[in-house]
């Protein structure tokens, strides 16, 4: 390719082209394949040309991760759009939709949920997936009397961390438009929410990477049973 031809290709490359190419590399080969050099090669341009759009690979990957999260949230929003405005029904539909999406998009799941997070982990609650999940949780808190741990059950060593998380939760729930008695979101409920997410995320992660201790011929039944256990423990139903 002549220098004139290369410069023309570089001018023609757009942010949309870059993100589309990065997403294709992610889906086909995984997060490690998403490099500026690989994207430039696919687009037929030089790697330095990409710095017009992104300062580094990390910058590009963060934007790619945000695109994936937005797509996940849109899919989950569609799942619950036709459901009654009842927190528990929507919350468990979101849980099931999250698992379905993760199993169908393993490379995207790896990028977003199975890669080391930066120091801004708490701020990600305000992203589309966090908002839709927490909005449903807020409706559950508003509409149900849950069986929750008392504050004195929370280990003393965890209280400072949980207090910070509690403040972030309150801010995100307010921004989402959720209305619920603020006193319901005490440290016991905050502790419960962390445990709920850990069990949901842990189950899905083990399944996505094929690391469950034994193979199950009907994994859907196992997942539904786990959700039913979680619901029963806090006085809800998944039906």
UniProtKB/TrEMBL annotation:
<feature type="domain" description="HTH tetR-type">
    <location>
        <begin position="12"/>
        <end position="72"/>
    </location>
</feature>
<dbReference type="GO" id="GO:0000976">
    <property type="term" value="F:transcription cis-regulatory region binding"/>
</dbReference>
<feature type="DNA-binding region" description="H-T-H motif">
    <location>
        <begin position="35"/>
        <end position="54"/>
    </location>
</feature>
<dbReference type="InterPro" id="IPR009057">
    <property type="entry name" value="Homeodomain-like_sf"/>
</dbReference>
<dbReference type="GO" id="GO:0003700">
    <property type="term" value="F:DNA-binding transcription factor activity"/>
</dbReference>
<keyword id="KW-0805">Transcription regulation</keyword>
<dbReference type="InterPro" id="IPR001647">
    <property type="entry name" value="HTH_TetR"/>
</dbReference>
<protein>
    <submittedName>
        <fullName>TetR family transcriptional regulator</fullName>
    </submittedName>
</protein>
<keyword id="KW-0238">DNA-binding</keyword>
<keyword id="KW-0804">Transcription</keyword>
<dbReference type="Pfam" id="PF00440">
    <property type="entry name" value="TetR_N"/>
</dbReference>
<dbReference type="Pfam" id="PF13305">
    <property type="entry name" value="TetR_C_33"/>
</dbReference>
<dbReference type="InterPro" id="IPR050109">
    <property type="entry name" value="HTH-type_TetR-like_transc_reg"/>
</dbReference>
<dbReference type="InterPro" id="IPR036271">
    <property type="entry name" value="Tet_transcr_reg_TetR-rel_C_sf"/>
</dbReference>
<dbReference type="InterPro" id="IPR025996">
    <property type="entry name" value="MT1864/Rv1816-like_C"/>
</dbReference>
